[in-house]
């Protein structure tokens, strides 16, 4: 049984601007990616950009997801800017 | 086979590995991408490439699987480098072998286009005294959408 937490990760520009590579949040039944973003953005400062005008991509358990995707205890939820490889 | 690595790669060796894939192979298409100055700022000396270990490989495997469903391909090889790279360094390799050229060309181009907009890599350009994250290009998104 996994702990009732979400493992949040940040990559690239977001990781640098938030000064945070990863953190844990309590998992709330029924919550979506969008709820997680709202909670983090409410911290203010650089965190507000998570609900700003720049696109924020999300992956849940290492698969691309949408802001409407539901997240559950034990999930790995990663936020990052649009990708630029290749 | 997929490799995400800091080390450089040898296109000749990769080609020979694809060539030994069996007597049914009649065509090999390869693509090599090099680090270039994006033109967003002046004085770029190189790049730093970040990725999301684990997810990167899963996304690329998904692209290879999709290519295998859409075209008749016998083998696919993708290499992507991460870490610090200099201008003109090799950054990405896609090699496809197939019975016929059309499938090899198409699968190679599809994987490369889709990789650019879906695989979790991020480039940071480095100049003499500063660095900045590269923005995704609308033209890359358009190219990927054209395969849908």
TrEMBL record, chain A:
One of its GO terms (cellular component) is molybdopterin adenylyltransferase complex. It comes from the Bacteria. Pfam families: ThiS. Keywords: Nucleotide-binding. The keyword Chloroplast does not apply. InterPro entries: Beta-grasp_dom_sf (IPR012675), MoaD_arc-typ (IPR010038), MOCS2A (IPR044672), Mopterin_synth/thiamin_S_b (IPR016155), ThiS/MoaD-like (IPR003749). One of its GO terms (molecular function) is nucleotide binding. One of its GO terms (biological process) is Mo-molybdopterin cofactor biosynthetic process. CDD domains: Ubl_MoaD (cd00754). SUPFAM superfamilies: MoaD/ThiS. Belongs to the MoaD family. This is Molybdopterin synthase sulfur carrier subunit. It comes from Marinobacter litoralis. The lineage of its organism: Bacteria, Pseudomonadati, Pseudomonadota, Gammaproteobacteria, Pseudomonadales. The gene is moaD.
Automatic annotation (TrEMBL), chain B:
It comes from Marinobacter litoralis. Belongs to the MoaE family. Heterotetramer of 2 MoaD subunits and 2 MoaE subunits. Also stable as homodimer. The enzyme changes between these two forms during catalysis. It is an enzyme of class 2 (transferase). One of its GO terms (molecular function) is molybdopterin synthase activity. Keywords: Molybdenum cofactor biosynthesis, Transferase. It catalyses: 2 [molybdopterin-synthase sulfur-carrier protein]-C-terminal-Gly-aminoethanethioate + cyclic pyranopterin phosphate + H2O = molybdopterin + 2 [molybdopterin-synthase sulfur-carrier protein]-C-terminal Gly-Gly + 2 H(+). The gene is moaE. One of its GO terms (biological process) is Mo-molybdopterin cofactor biosynthetic process. InterPro entries: MoaE_sf, Mopterin_biosynth_MoaE. This is Molybdopterin synthase catalytic subunit. Signal peptide: none annotated. Its EC number is 2.8.1.12.
């Amino acid at each position: 049984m996994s702990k009732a937490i979400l493992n949040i990760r940040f990559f690239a520009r977001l990781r640098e601007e938030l000064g945070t590579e990863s953190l844990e949040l309590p998992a709330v039944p029924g919550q979506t990616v969008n709820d997680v973003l709202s909670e983090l953005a409410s911290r203010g400062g650089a965190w507000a950009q998570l609900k700003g005008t720049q696109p924020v991509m999300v992956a849940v358990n290492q698969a691309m997801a949408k802001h409407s995707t539901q997240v559950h205890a034990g999930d790995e939820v990663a936020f990052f800017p649009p990708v630029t490889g290749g | 086979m997929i490799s995400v690595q800091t080390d450089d790669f040898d296109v000749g060796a990769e080609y020979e590995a694809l060539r030994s894939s069996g007597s049914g192979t009649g065509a090999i298409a390869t693509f090599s991408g090099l680090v270039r100055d994006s033109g967003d700022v002046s004085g770029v000396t190189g790049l730093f490439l970040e990725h999301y270990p684990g997810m990167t490989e899963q996304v690329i495997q998904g692209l290879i699987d999709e290519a295998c469903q859409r075209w008749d391909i016998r083998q696919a090889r993708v290499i992507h480098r991460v870490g610090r790279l200099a201008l003109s360094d090799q950054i990405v390799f896609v090699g496809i072998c197939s019975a016929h050229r059309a499938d090899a060309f198409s699968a190679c181009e599809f994987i490369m286009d889709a990789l650019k907009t879906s695989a979790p890599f991020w480039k940071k350009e480095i100049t003499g005294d500063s660095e900045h994250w590269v923005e995704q290009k609308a033209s890359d998104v358009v190219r990927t959408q054209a395969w849908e």
